[in-house]
Amino acid sequence: MSGALEKVNLSIKNSIKRYAQPMFLFKKTLVKNEENASYEKKISRKNFTKFSGVFLPLTKEEKIDLFDTKIIANEFFAKVYTLDYLDFRPEEQVLVDKSFLEIVSISGFAQNEIGYTMLILQGL
Fold this sequence. Notes:
Helices cover about 20% and strands about 55% of the residues. The chain is α+β, with helices and mostly antiparallel strands. It has a 6-stranded antiparallel beta barrel with strand order 1-2-5-8-7-6. A two-stranded antiparallel ribbon has the order 3-4.
């Protein structure tokens, strides 16, 4: 990594540390449906992990890249930048303040390359 890029990454990581707020990750768990004896993955409100991140709501005019296509955010979307290394997965939920949001995209490569992870969240 070049010296200039290392300085930019250090600046980003310092900003994440400075402005981070507490958040909670709610994982999906396998639950048995007693009526038809099948199993489903559901979000458990009892099973969560606390982490810190910077929450940035996106405006309706802002374009975001989901699954390699440009779409306009007609619904509520947000980005979260975190230095915490957790096993984030799409469709899991994050609690920010009093709002639950669903993870729709994860830039996990950033964690290994430059030290932080970016999540795209959608309002529920």
